[in-house]
Amino acid sequence: MKKVYALLLVAVMTVAMAVPTFAANSPEADPVVKTAAGVDVVAGAKEVKTSVAAASVAVPSEQLAQQVVSVTSTESVLKDLNIPTSAKLVAAVDVSYSGEIPAGGVQVPFKVPNAKKGDMVYVLHRQPNAPYTWEVVGSGVLGDDLTVTGTFTSFSPVAFMVVDAADVAATAVKAPKTGEF
Question: Three-class SS string for the chain?
Answer without folding.
Answer: CHHHHHHHHHHHHHHHHHHHHHCCCCCCCCCEEECCCCCEEEECCEEEEECCCCEEEECCCHHHHHHHHHHHCCHHHHHHCCCCCCCEEEEEEEEEECCCCCCCCEEEEEECCCCCCCCEEEEEEECCCCCCCEEEEEEEECCCCCEEEEEECCCCEEEEEEECHHHHHHCCCCCCCCCCC
